[in-house]
Design a protein that fits this description.
eight-stranded mixed β-sheet; Rossmann fold; Rna Polymerase Sigma Factor, Chain: A; alpha/beta
Length: 369
Amino acid sequence: MTPQRTLFHTFDAPKDAIALDCGQTLTPYTVAYQTWGKLNADRSNAILIFHALSGDAHVAGAHEDGRTEGWWDLMVGPGCAFDTDRFFIICANVLGGCKGSTGPGSTNPATRQPYGTDFPVITINDMVRAQHPLLRVLGIEKLCAVTGGSMGGMLALAFIQLYPEMAERAIVLASAATNHAQAIAWNKIGRHAIMDDPLWREGHYYDSPDGPPRNGLALARMIGHVTYISEGAMDRKFGRKLQSADVESFSFGVDYAVESYLAHQGQSFYERFDANSYLYITRAIDYFDFAAKTGGDLTAAFAQTRARLRFFSYDADWLYSPERNEAMTAAARAAGREAVHHKIHAPLGHDAFLVQKEPQTELIREFLR
């Protein structure tokens, strides 16, 4: 594929103002997005992909900024599950992100300074509302499919509930209808790590000579990363392997290979992500509840949708387990929706949806066919 460039659209018309779930109104706002492939004559081959927490609009292929890979190269491209020779693929950075769409690091038009924590608290539904007008800009009235993994799966669920006539299919991978208590707890610990960093400065650190709260964000990423990989995968990859010596150092430094690995994950993350965006996005994940409008009745929630559904879970994923996906499938069927659950053997755990190509590629191809 030819190198992609990120496109930007600013929504500043009165009709585009977003009435946020928190009670505030956001206007103007910008959506950063990329596209692959071509729309067919009747504009019926568009697929909207939603990214996970730390993703962005660059889902596949080379990028004009020099990056050689997208975050879902295994699944998006010529001949892939989401075949760019057949489909027009769209992916946008979420509202609240730090990769081009409006978020806490953007300029607040009222102060001409970065929003910081003056940015309103947002929800998964708000993120979907921000992307919906982009389809109008692109001339798309109905999508062939919406899809995403983890938080992206929540966004896909929110889309088919908010706009039930706009997507024929929904493909939800490694996700859940709501965040469970343990996942909320891990997110809280990660946010605490950021907010306890002295450089956080109540979220107003963008012009600080000391820079952003790197240590807090690195720690938050280390905490979160542990939830994305199964115990067995950690053991197989690292076990009790020492990093550089034959014996323990009897200090509080880095003795084990897994410690070095997590430190690397933390450092690489703070070099590319914004701490405030991490706070806002994880809070949005915590607030997501697909059945909130139906009093917790999951079947009634799926009755508000019209899309055909495919759920993909991964047997070693303890963050969003196969059981949670099976419950969604059963509820969707009870609501009269076509729904199938594919439980995939994937020892890695939650992150398998990002790095494992089979068997979901053929299952998705068949569904899109």
